[in-house]
């Protein structure tokens, strides 16, 4: 019989910034408790506190239940193993042993473990990054990634870099190597490799140029784009133009958040939404140009469609992974069409990102406080700008956005 109890609970003593509560593994032995975070959080209304499990309407319910069963089983099996070997343990030492334990022996197994953990925890963004890196390595090794970590040395990394340079730029190469280095770091923490076998001491990632060129365009360019008549043009070309302009006139809202916007997010002439990347609440006034774009799609689609733009379908894209895959697919189409639109307007490298960057730059040039609109839109991580926006009163943002035309 187990001398320790293991169960997952919704930890109500700690409310996170986004209003959710973390799920914690509670290990109890000899009257002492140890809590271990599962890396997943839920809203209070989505957790059944009597049955101690997610309710039917809980987002990612199946994935969360799968993670809970896997974690509880892992802890119980480890406790039984210790008991069978007559080894004493406490709640804390049991947690330490399990969390440090990694069964992966090869690079392929380590990648798969990380991806499975991320998928089970609902961290789809990070999962996609590791999957992207994994697929690249599988192609490079001709599907022979089932190799020990010690096989990857500095010379191996140089060959991989040379192979990547045939099709990738420094920014993409850097992403692949930073992800691979992260896998090595996790293997190091799990004692799967020794310090002397760590190849990134000599192979420095600073060799890659990851500076992002400024891509903002001015008011004149925005007006040229607005003046292009696309009557009778391809649907995606029209949609791409509308998405670009809505982002510009919508406080730099990014494509993912545009895709998720619903009619219910518009209240009293303002758009209110939760930034998917950071979990921060954002609010901005619905300017006339943005309102006109919304009205265009509200006429074409019934309000019951929920989503404002014809990107997601609530009947088809139900899970987070389905939504993410659809958004990724559509943004690819949109950016291709924006390239065509850019050629029509005499503008190079027109993308959804340019709209966000232009929003910030136009306001900055108009004398808007740098604290309000940060130039970090020139970086790959744009979340800081949204955090800055969130920290000011709506009246300040409203006044600042008057400079957009």
TrEMBL record:
Residues of the Tyr recombinase domain: 212-402
SUPFAM superfamilies in alphabetical order: DNA breaking-rejoining enzymes
Molecular function terms, GO-annotated: DNA binding
Record keywords: DNA integration, DNA recombination, DNA-binding
InterPro entries given in the database record: Arm-DNA-bind_5, CB, DNA_brk_join_enz, Integrase-like_cat_sf, Integrase_catalytic, Integrase_recombinase_N, SAM-like_dom, Tyrosine_recombinase_XerCD
Gene Ontology process terms (BP): DNA integration; DNA recombination
Domain Core-binding (CB): 105-188
Domain of life: Bacteria
Keyword DNA-binding tagged: yes
Database matches in Pfam families: Arm-DNA-bind_5 (PF17293), Phage_int_SAM_5 (PF13102), Phage_integrase (PF00589)
Coiled coil stretches, renumbered: none
Cited PANTHER family: PHAGE INTEGRASE-RELATED, PROPHAGE INTEGRASE INTD-RELATED
Family, similarity comment: Belongs to the 'phage' integrase family.
Name of protein: Site-specific integrase
């Amino acid at each position: 019989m187990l001398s320790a109890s293991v169960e997952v609970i919704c930890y109500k003593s700690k409310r996170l910034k986004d209003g959710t509560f973390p799920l914690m593994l509670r290990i109890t032995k000899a009257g002492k408790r140890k809590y271990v975070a599962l890396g997943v959080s839920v809203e209070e209304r989505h957790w059944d506190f009597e049955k101690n499990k997610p309710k039917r309407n809980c987002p990612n319910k199946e994935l969360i239940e799968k993670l809970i069963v896997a974690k509880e089983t892992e802890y119980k099996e480890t406790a039984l193993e210790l008991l069978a070997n007559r080894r004493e343990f406490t709640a804390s030492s049991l947690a330490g042993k399990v969390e440090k334990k990694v069964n992966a022996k090869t690079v392929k197994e380590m990648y798969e473990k990380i991806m499975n953990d991320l998928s089970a925890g609902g961290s789809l963004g990070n999962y996609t990054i590791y999957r992207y890196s994994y697929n690249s390595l599988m192609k490079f090794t001709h599907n022979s990634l089932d190799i020990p970590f010690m096989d990857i040395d500095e010379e191996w990394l140089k060959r991989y870099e040379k192979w990547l340079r045939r099709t990738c730029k420094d920014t993409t190469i850097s992403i692949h190597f930073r992800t691979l280095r992260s896998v090595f770091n996790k293997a190091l923490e799990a004692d799967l490799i020794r310090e002397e076998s760590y190849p990134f001491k000599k192979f420095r990632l600073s060799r890659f140029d990851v500076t992002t060129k400024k891509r903002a365009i001015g008011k004149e360019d925005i007006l040229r784009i607005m003046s292009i008549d696309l009557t009778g043009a391809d649907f995606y070309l029209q949609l791409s133009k509308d998405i670009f302009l809505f982002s510009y006139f919508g406080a730099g809202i990014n494509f993912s958040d545009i895709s998720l916007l619903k009619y219910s997010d518009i209240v009293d002439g303002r758009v209110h939404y939760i930034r998917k990347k950071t979990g921060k609440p954002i609010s901005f006034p619905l300017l006339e140009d943005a309102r006109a774009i919304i009205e265009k799609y509200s006429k074409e689609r019934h309000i019951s469609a929920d989503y404002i733009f014809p990107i997601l379908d609530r009947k088809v894209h139900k899970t987070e992974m389905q939504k993410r895959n659809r958004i990724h697919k559509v943004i690819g189409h949109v950016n291709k069409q924006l390239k065509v639109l850019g050629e029509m307007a005499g503008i190079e490298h027109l993308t959804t990102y340019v709209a966000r960057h232009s929003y910030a730059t136009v306001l900055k040039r108009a004398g808007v406080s740098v604290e309000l609109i940060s130039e970090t839109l020139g970086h790959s991580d744009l979340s800081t700008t949204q955090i800055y926006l969130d920290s000011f009163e709506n009246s300040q943002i409203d006044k600042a956005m008057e400079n957009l035309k």
